[in-house]
């Protein structure tokens, strides 16, 4: 048997989550550099600085606008970064991923402060890296998860609700794609644990999602809002760490993401968010898999919150589904069956019939 290790992120959640900063950061040193997105820093930097009692901030830096190795290198050269004992990463997925990669290169601890609840970047051991022009390059994996995520629900409730809305689709996708990918297998402990936890990526969304979305619109950090934020940021982050570890077999994706990545080639992201597109991909994934009851449940949920239920909702028609390309994507390489383009087109047609 091979040895292996597992590092998991810790987190604080609530309207006063930043009050925990001294308690969990000071043991790592007395100087931190704050790096983040522009809007994120405007909203969060002062609140973080105020709560970080006993910690000197060496600087407040913009991450550069893209999760690129070039931006990581530029930050690495900064004096404010070199002087710091730890990195405070502030913002959305790209800002957090840039800071996590920077921390890994420097061997410094990173603490995350998500300012939108659209993905699990605050709690994962991977960064999605792009070229400076914004073209996807690769996932960059590292050993250490962020030491602690400070999830301020007051701040997140003030963010535009489209982020949470799309994030819900990407979150429930995790359960369906992972359980289908792993079907019939006997995974080792950490993968089995990840699969078991994946149910926490669906149930809270269906139970609290509609209320959470409404509360986000009126900026209420309610109980329902908190449950959905936990599902998007924490449950999905933990599952992702467990399922991507050692990479093979990869249960972390499936037919819903194969649809998304295929359609990026026709510019779908110009008008639609990642999680929004994946939310439709889950319908395709479930109907192809013959899970009629779950399909009806997700479709009903999507209809209630305004996530897509038809190709037209994504500005697509039956003529531009690109089934051949979808069937060939790496996301469905480890799958219990080979995806057949013709059957896939029938699934799209059935979805369109409603
Ligand atoms: Zn996704």
Give a concise summary.
With 354 residues, this protein is α/β, with parallel strands linked by helices. It contains 15 helices and 8 strands. It has a 6-stranded parallel beta sheet with strand order 1-8-5-4-2-3. A two-stranded antiparallel ribbon has the order 6-7.
What order do the helices and strands come in, and which of them pair?
Elements (H helix, E strand, L loop, with lengths): L9 E5 L6 H5 L5 E6 L1 H14 L4 E7 L6 H8 L2 H5 L2 E6 L1 H14 L3 E5 L11 E5 L5 E6 L6 E5 H6 L3 H20 L7 H9 L5 H15 L5 H22 L10 H10 L9 H15 L3 H14 L17 H5 L13 H13 L1
Parallel strand pairs: 1-8, 2-3, 2-4, 4-5, 5-8
Antiparallel strand pairs: 6-7
Helix pairs in contact: 3-5, 7-9, 7-10, 7-12, 8-10, 9-10, 9-13, 11-12, 12-13, 12-15
The structure holds zinc ion.
Describe this structure in words.
The chain folds into two domains: 10-158, Rossmann fold; 162-353, Dehydroquinate synthase-like, alpha domain (Up-down Bundle), CATH 1.20.1090. By secondary structure, the chain is an alpha/beta fold. It is built from 15 helices and eight strands. Helix 7 (162-181) crosses helix 10 and helix 9 runs parallel beside helix 13. The protein starts with 9 loop residues before the first strand and ends with a helix. Residues 170, 257, 274, 278 line the site of zinc ion.
**CATH homologous superfamily classification of the largest domain:** Dehydroquinate synthase-like - alpha domain
- CATH top level of the largest domain? Mainly Alpha
Mean of pLDDT: 95
> What is the CA-CA span between the terminal residues?
50 Å
The order of strands across the largest sheet is 1-8-5-4-2-3
Strand fraction: 5-15%
**What would you call the shape?**
globular
The biggest sheet, with number of strands, parallel, antiparallel or mixed sense and barrel status, is:
6 strands, parallel
Order of helices and strands: EHEHEHHEHEEEEHHHHHHHHHH
Q: Rg from C-alpha positions?
A: 20 Å
């Amino acid at each position: 048997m091979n040895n292996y290790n597992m590092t998991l992120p810790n987190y604080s959640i609530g309207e006063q989550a930043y009050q925990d900063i001294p308690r969990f950061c000071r043991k790592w040193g007395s100087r931190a550099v704050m790096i983040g997105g522009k809007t994120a820093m405007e909203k969060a930097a002062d609140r973080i600085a105020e709560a970080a009692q006993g910690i000197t901030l060496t600087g407040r830096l913009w991450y550069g606008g893209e999760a690129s190795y070039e931006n990581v290198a530029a930050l690495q050269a900064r004096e404010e970064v070199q002087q710091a004992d730890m990195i405070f990463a502030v913002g959305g997925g790209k800002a957090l991923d840039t800071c996590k990669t920077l921390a890994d290169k420097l061997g410094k601890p990173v603490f995350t402060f998500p300012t939108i609840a659209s993905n699990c970047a605050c709690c994962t051991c991977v960064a999605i890296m792009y070229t400076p022009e914004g073209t996807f390059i690769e996932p960059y994996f590292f050993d250490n998860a962020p030491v602690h995520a400070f999830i301020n629900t007051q701040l997140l409730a003030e963010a535009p609700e489209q982020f949470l809305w799309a994030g819900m689709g990407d979150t429930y996708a995790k359960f369906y794609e992972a359980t289908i990918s792993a079907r019939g297998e006997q995974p080792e402990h950490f993968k089995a644990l990840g699969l078991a936890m994946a149910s926490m990526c669906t149930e809270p969304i269906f139970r609290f999602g509609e209320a959470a979305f409404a509360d986000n619109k009126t900026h209420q950090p309610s109980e329902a809002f908190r449950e959905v934020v936990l599902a998007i940021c924490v449950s999905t982050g933990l599952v992702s760490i467990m399922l991507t570890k050692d990479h093979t077999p990869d249960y972390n994706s499936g037919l819903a993401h194969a649809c998304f990545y295929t359609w990026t080639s026709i510019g779908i992201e110009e008008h639609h968010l990642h999680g929004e597109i994946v939310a439709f991909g889950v319908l395709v994934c479930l109907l192809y898999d013959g899970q009629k009851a779950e399909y009806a449940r997700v479709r009903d949920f999507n209809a209630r919150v305004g996530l897509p239920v038809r190709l037209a909702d994504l500005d697509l028609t039956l003529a531009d589904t690109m089934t051949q390309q979808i069937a060939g994507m790496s996301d469905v390489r480890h799958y219990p069956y080979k995806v057949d383009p013709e059957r896939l087109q029938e699934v799209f047609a059935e979805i369109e019939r409603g």
